[in-house]
Structures are given as structure tokens and as C-alpha cells.
Amino acid sequence: MADPADAGAGWRRRRRRLVETAAMILGAVIVAGLIRAFVFQVFWIPSSSMEPTLGVRDRIMVQKAFFSWRDIHEGDIVVFSHPPRDNCPGPRKGDLVKRVIALPGQTIYSSGNSIYVNRRVLAEPYLPRDDTLWPAIASGQHPYRVPSGDFYVLGDNRSNSCDSRYWGPVKGSSIVGQVVLVLWHDGHPDFRRF
Question: Which percentage of the chain shows pLDDT scores above 70?
């Protein structure tokens, strides 16, 4: 005959393991939520505006922790909140992904398919060969000066990108983070750093 004390001790051990397991799962969920909210976040690309660098349905990892928009450089790819002056077709919700072309205080204009930042031609090896820059960005006689605290951003697929040419520069304070890694590209894993 089984001892009732042994049965009670077995139940207490199982209950303690169940509580410990639940606490570990809850702790893991909280840590994962904190990491997503403050350290890194994965975003997916909904449009072709950044092709060929980033394709539709690609997954990117964005650094949010230890990130300051003051540390952004020309050529960085950033995620930012929808600009208030966005009148382009498409959904108004969600964040956007574009490449930083000009920094606060810099001047920018275009001539043909070339972009000039502070009167020097911008090297853009990431662009497709036959990509057309339209509409133009200001002119050489009247270049656009990016306001303090703002960034001029463009998509890599210029002929199919709604960007600063249409709604102006983005506020540094609206930048969520910087793209640091491609996790998924062209339908398969692709761990490429930026």
C-alpha cells in the first residue's frame, strides 16, 4: 500500500517543476519582448523600392539599442516612421526603409542620373545600371540644403520609390534604427551585414 506522505511529496515536486517551467517561459518571453523593443527588431520589406539591395518580402534586422541618429552616415540604410507629408499611394501604416543620401546641413541636387552632395558626385555602386532618377532633385544653381536634424533619403530603385523627392527630408527623431543585417533574401536565408 502506497504511503500518502510519498504521494503528497511527489505532487509537490511536480507542482514545483511546473511553476519553475512556467517562470522560465515567462522570463524568456519578457526578455524576448525587451530585446525586440529596445535592442534589435526584425522588419520585412513590403515593396520593391529598395531593389536590388533589398527585395520584396526580405527580412532585415534593425539595431535600435545604442543607436543615435547623430551617428548616421551617407549610404546607411535606416528604418523610420512614415513622414507626415507622404501623399504617395500605398498603405499609410508601418515604417519605411530607405538609404540616407544627404546629412543635415549638406546640399543636394541632381543632374541627369547623377546626384551631387556638397557639389561632389555621389558614388552609388548599389544602384541598378538602368535606373532613372526622376523627378530631379533641385538644380546645381539652386541646390537643396538639408535642414538641421533632417536626412535626405532615397530608395535604391529610384524609378519605383516614393522618398524624399516627394515628401522632403525625414526628421532624425523619426528614425527607428539602422539596418545591420539581412536575414532573408530572395526566398532563402542570407546573413549579409551592412
Answer: 89
